[in-house]
């Protein structure tokens, strides 16, 4: 397990911004603790990209504000990943695994929004492989949450749109 985590860390260190490196890191992550690590590092990479974009005079102010809002929304969820990952690694019980999985799900949703904001500011599509997996995961989580809502509440939500 430690060798696997070191492999993931090495891939990420070599360059999370590189599509192949991110893809390999996500592929190599096959446990909740590894996925949480990759997700946290991806978040950190996106924050750096957003900061670089903010400094460019060609980045529209509106795009900067959207990235800032997305980052502020994502930060608390991303910050929960490390301590919950550590607790999971220390205990490896059903409770810590469930807590870590819930934190991963929460983080995926808001980090997906950050991905969209950064890619939009760059003028790039969000269909690159490295983000597509994350965005599809977020979409599945949103759909699952919607399906768990009482049908009457779901109809009211749809009508409010």
How would you describe what is shown here?
- There is one protein chain.
- This protein is mainly α and 161 residues long.
- The protein has one domain (31-160): Four Helix Bundle (Hemerythrin (Met), subunit A) (Up-down Bundle), CATH 1.20.120.
- The chain is 84% helix and 0% strand.
- The chain is built from seven helices and no strands.
- It has helices spanning 2-13, 19-28, 32-55, 61-91, 94-122, 129-147, 151-160.
- Helix 1 runs antiparallel to helix 2 and helix 3 packs antiparallel against helix 4 (61-91).
- The longest helix is centred in the middle third of the chain and has 31 residues, at 61-91.
- The radius of gyration is 17 Å and the shape is globular.
- The model is unreliable at 6-18 (pLDDT under 50).
What global shape is seen? globular
Q: Provide the structure class.
A: mainly alpha
Radius of gyration: 17 Å
CATH topology: Four Helix Bundle (Hemerythrin (Met), subunit A)
Order of helices and strands: HHHHHHH
CATH class: Mainly Alpha
β content, as a range? under 5%
List the total number of helices: 7
Mean pLDDT: 79
In short:
The protein is mainly α. The protein has 7 helices and no strands.
List the helices and strands and how they pair.
Elements: H1 2-13, H2 19-28, H3 32-55, H4 61-91, H5 94-122, H6 129-147, H7 151-160
Helix pairs in contact: 1-2, 1-3, 2-3, 3-4, 3-5, 4-5, 5-6
């Amino acid at each position: 397990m430690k060798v696997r985590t070191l492999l993931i860390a090495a891939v990420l260190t070599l360059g999370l911004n590189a599509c192949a490196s991110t893809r390999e890191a996500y592929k190599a992550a096959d446990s909740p603790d590894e996925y949480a690590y990759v997700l946290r590092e991806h978040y950190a990479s996106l924050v750096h990209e957003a900061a670089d974009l903010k400094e460019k005079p060609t980045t529209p102010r509106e795009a900067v504000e959207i990235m800032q809002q997305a980052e502020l929304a994502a930060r608390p969820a991303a910050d929960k990943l490390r301590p919950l990952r550590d607790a999971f690694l220390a205990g490896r019980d059903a409770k810590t695994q469930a807590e870590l999985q819930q934190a991963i799900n929460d983080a995926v949703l808001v980090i997906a929004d950050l991905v969209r904001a950064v890619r939009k500011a760059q003028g790039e599509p969000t269909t690159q492989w490295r983000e597509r997996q994350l965005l599809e995961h977020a979409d599945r989580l949103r759909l699952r949450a919607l399906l768990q809502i009482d049908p009457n509440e779901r109809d009211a939500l749809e009508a409010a749109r």
